[in-house]
Amino acid sequence: MTILVTGATGNIGRMLVDHLLAAGRTDVRALTNHPERARLPAGVEIAEGFLGRVNSLPDALVGVDQIYLAPYPSTIEPVLELARNAGVRHVVDLAGPPENWWNPISVAVERSGMHWTHLWPGEFMENSTMWAEQIIESDCVREPFPDAANAPIAMEDIAAAAAAVLIDEESHHGRAHILTGPETLTRTELLDRISTALGRPLTFETVSRQETIDDLTPSMGDFAITYVDGLESSVDNPQPVDGTLVDITGTATTFMQWAQRNVDSFR
Questions:
Q1: β-strand 185-186 against 149-150: which pairing, if any?
Q2: Which domains does the chain have, with CATH numbers?
Q3: Given pLDDT bands bounded at 50, 70 and 90, which one contains residue 104?
Q4: pTM given for the model
């Protein structure tokens, strides 16, 4: 039975393909909008398509038993209808809990009539690369909430969890897995770990909320407000560590490990 990985040339989707192959799966189909640029491993069936172009999906869904659903809320309803009609049994989605901007995916998947498993990750460790330009230019990060704290997770670990769920699917039917990293860290603690990885001191400068929104708006648009609001809320409500990732995969990447592996992003 075929596993369809959507967003297969995106960050998590591409890593998921590798995890499935490493586990010995030979039934992986990768959905990509640009097959000619995909550079996917040998042994992976490539299907041209994109969740945002629903009419590109029927052929990709033929013979598919399970699907990893990358987050694309705007077309979720017709995509799920096509998947159900094609005979897909199990949907593993990257989504979010109530009040999260990806929660409409979770709701639609639960209503689809197919078996489902939600993956609800915390903030990605990779989001810290938004600091890269500041660090490279000034060895300083400017944000309004140094004590904001969460338990960031590496994208690689999310991909590993998705692979484990797809391989051992029956153990995960009807479950929403909260996925976090192994530590709750403040913004200054994150920066300290990047500093250690770089081998030079970095400083955190507290600036106003509005200044940060203004700095992020060119790259984030209106989401900059939502992002800064989320930081502010985590000052008094830090995200706790959840052990589900370790339960599923047996391991969890620390932020220090991630920073050491990705230190060139900050050079």
A1: antiparallel
A2: 2-121 (3.40.50.720), 125-152+182-239+253-266 (3.90.25.10)
A3: very high
A4: 0.95
